[in-house]
Amino acid sequence: RNTSGVLCICSPVPVGFLGQHLLRILLEKEDSLEEIRVFDKPRNIRGILSYKQNTHGSRLNYSHGDVSYSNLKQSIKKIKIACPLSYSLLYQHKRTKNVIKACVECGIECLLYTSSMEVVKGGKHLYTCSLRPTGIYGEGHQLIKDFYKQGVQRGVFALFTITIIKSVTYPLVYLGNVAWMHLLAAQALRERPEKVGGEAFYCYDDSPYKSYEDFNMVLFSEFNFRKARIPTMVLWFLAMFNDLMHWLLKPIYNYTPLLNSYTLAVVSTTFTVRTDKAERHFDYRPLYSWDECLARTKKWISTFPSENSKDC
């Protein structure tokens, strides 16, 4: 695999999440990789340097700054594959344009873009493909920590429990398998660009289809959390109230509660993916089985502060 470098843009999500899994698998599986360049926000430097020190990270080089065209162009010189990992909703369009422009100007051969399940597009002058994780979980997921804290503080698992719609399910995917799909897609882009370029791929593995709250109950099965029975209408009024407060406080405070009209719509709607497209295009098969995904995530959860800890 003639890969001279990979650019991972982890903004605003620190390398401790999807980027960490991607870096780990790159270092473990890609022996011929000469260099990995990480371009991130300055506030994430501690996590990246810590990760480099605790792994065989001699090929890992870090730079930081805002995602401007000039900064990106300087960082991606002489690399062959760019892999931006950006989950910013407010500036994602502008940042994506900066990444594509810098890739074109620097002669980057392939662009692997991590998208969301809402929108995905290919490119015209650059071989690209989009990977679309429908819902992700695993070590480093901040929401899992937040759910745990909520359960400890209240003694109840009560984020979104919608009892009226019992059949709502979602396909959640383990982060390690998402990272593995990134690597296989990047290799396929270089070897078979006419087949993979311009395509969109949903990320999938063997994780069971469940609602968010039921899936979280599986992850936290060793704790005595119970579900709170909150009527859908009450959740709807709370979501509308939070939307209103967000709008009113926007000039002076960034009020961003987890429950709003958008998140309520997401957890109230079944989303189903049945596909083997990634396997057909670049021989993807999950690197981790469901049992391994669950065990690895639960092992990470077991490191959380105990119920009596003030850090919860």
TrEMBL record:
<feature type="domain" description="3-beta hydroxysteroid dehydrogenase/isomerase">
    <location>
        <begin position="121"/>
        <end position="228"/>
    </location>
</feature>
<dbReference type="InterPro" id="IPR002225">
    <property type="entry name" value="3Beta_OHSteriod_DH/Estase"/>
</dbReference>
<protein>
    <submittedName>
        <fullName>Hydroxy-delta-5-steroid dehydrogenase, 3 beta- and steroid delta-isomerase</fullName>
    </submittedName>
</protein>
<comment type="similarity">
    <text>Belongs to the 3-beta-HSD family.</text>
</comment>
<dbReference type="GO" id="GO:0016616">
    <property type="term" value="F:oxidoreductase activity, acting on the CH-OH group of donors, NAD or NADP as acceptor"/>
</dbReference>
<keyword id="KW-0560">Oxidoreductase</keyword>
<dbReference type="InterPro" id="IPR050177">
    <property type="entry name" value="Lipid_A_modif_metabolic_enz"/>
</dbReference>
<dbReference type="Pfam" id="PF01073">
    <property type="entry name" value="3Beta_HSD"/>
</dbReference>
<dbReference type="GO" id="GO:0006694">
    <property type="term" value="P:steroid biosynthetic process"/>
</dbReference>
<dbReference type="InterPro" id="IPR036291">
    <property type="entry name" value="NAD(P)-bd_dom_sf"/>
</dbReference>
